[in-house]
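User: Can you recover a sequence for this backbone? Please restate the input before giving your answer.

Assistant: Of course. Working from this structure:
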């Protein structure tokens, strides 16, 4: 066999082993692996992040102050090894085959779907979530209200539900699934909606009836549908770029709040954290901004649900050199959440701090925008389970435990907010 023939054959083998999909098939991640890459300097971090611009072979999963989690294609190990040795970076494998996790998740979803009911033993599609919301609105017409943020790039409606048992309640806004692949977020949001309306538990009743809840189960509707139908690992929106063949923007870098400052987002359209050509370039984020701006006087707390890492992240995201005026209160409230979650039998540990301080600069995100531009003084990004064993592909068996943790955490968070005076009606301040 000639060298040319050998290389062609090798390329075909790697293609079959790696990600592949036809027109009507889902993208597969056979033999894709995920590594924890530890670094010490910003130069090392920049070199590793540069790898992720080659999205076919490297995909950034998570970023912290001293490590990145990177998904690697089966054909890119040699390049990764070269960079590791050349830059004195350490690497630890923690997911050996991404597709195995996806297959396990799909099998669990199929088994749970056989009776046709909506529930939390599986991850539901957007159509299933919206059909269930319609049932909820019809069943509880006196305490629920449908609201619409707007339309996505592909023309889907971005829906929310308001739950209000009485007037003059402080308001809590929950934004979920702004990143498409973070399915545990919409699963948790819908579980909370159900609990607020159906539970007889004293803690839940107090939580539900003494706060107004504005909940958007899926903000990035186009990306979410794409993760169910085409690519489970998709993160961004689905709007094409005018300057690149790469599609989509990181919607959590697209708000007009210190947009693109301090390397808090990428200007590369192929990057997972691409901030977009301008603030609010994504119709989903413009719609969110328009709606929240109209009800901000009713909102005391903003919670943006994400995964993964088990973190509570407060403002600021654009800088670690400055802190909000009420930073000490934000930390006290975050500690209340973390302590409550850890007290449960699961023993799950949450860390907390400012987004830039505990992780890395991230500008144009929901929590900063709500705090800086909308006057919501209690604003967090909550990164749910886990810390890397499953990452984004958290098995459905974790849905209810994670949601239970979110419930007791939010209850403790709001108790602390009340103690510190953050739940007073804004119109009376």
């Amino acid at each position: 066999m000639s060298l040319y023939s050998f290389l062609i054959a090798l390329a075909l083998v790697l293609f079959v082993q790696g990600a592949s999909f036809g027109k009507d098939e889902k993208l597969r991640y056979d033999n894709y692996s995920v590594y924890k890459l530890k670094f010490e300097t910003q130069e090392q971090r920049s070199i590793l992040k540069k790898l992720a611009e080659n999205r076919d072979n490297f995909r950034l999963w998570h970023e912290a102050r001293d490590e990145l989690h990177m998904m690697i294609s089966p054909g890119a190990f040699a390049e990764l090894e070269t960079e590791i040795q050349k830059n004195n970076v350490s690497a630890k494998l923690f997911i050996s085959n991404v597709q195995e996790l996806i297959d396990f998740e799909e099998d669990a979803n199929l088994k749970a779907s056989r009776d046709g009911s909506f529930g939390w033993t599986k991850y539901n599609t957007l159509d299933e979530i919206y059909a269930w919301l319609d049932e909820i609105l019809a069943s509880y017409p006196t305490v629920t209200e449908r609201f619409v943020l707007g339309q996505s790039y592909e023309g889907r409606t971005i829906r929310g539900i308001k739950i209000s048992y009485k007037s003059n309640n402080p308001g809590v806004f929950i934004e979920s699934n702004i990143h498409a692949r973070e399915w545990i977020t919409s699963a948790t949001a819908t579980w909370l909606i159900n609990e607020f309306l159906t539970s007889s538990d004293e803690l839940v009743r107090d939580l539900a009836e003494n706060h107004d809840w504005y909940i958007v189960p899926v903000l990035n509707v186009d990306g979410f549908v794409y993760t169910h139908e085409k690519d489970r690992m998709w993160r961004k929106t689905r709007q094409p770029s005018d300057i690149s063949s790469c599609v989509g923007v990181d919607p959590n870098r697209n708000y007009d709040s210190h947009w693109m400052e301090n390397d808090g987002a990428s200007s590369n359209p192929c990057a997972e954290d691409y901030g977009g050509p301008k603030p609010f370039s994504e119709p989903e984020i413009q719609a969110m901004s328009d709606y929240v701006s109209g009800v901000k006087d009713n909102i005391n707390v903003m919670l943006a649900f994400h995964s993964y890492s088990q973190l509570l992240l407060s403002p600021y995201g654009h800088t670690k050199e400055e802190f909000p005026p009420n930073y000490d209160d934000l930390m006290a409230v975050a500690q209340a959440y973390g302590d409550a979650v850890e007290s449960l039998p699961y023993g799950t540990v949450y860390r907390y701090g400012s987004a830039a301080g505990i992780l890395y600069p991230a500008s144009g995100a929901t929590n900063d925008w709500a705090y800086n531009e909308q006057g919501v003084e209690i604003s967090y990004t909550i990164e749910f389970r886990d810390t890397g064993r499953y990452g984004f592909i958290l098995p459905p068996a974790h849905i209810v435990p994670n949601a239970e943790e979110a419930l007791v955490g939010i209850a403790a968070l709001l108790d602390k907010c009340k103690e510190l005076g953050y739940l007073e009606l804004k119109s009376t301040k």
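That completes the design. Residues 313 and 355 are 5 Å apart (CA to CA).
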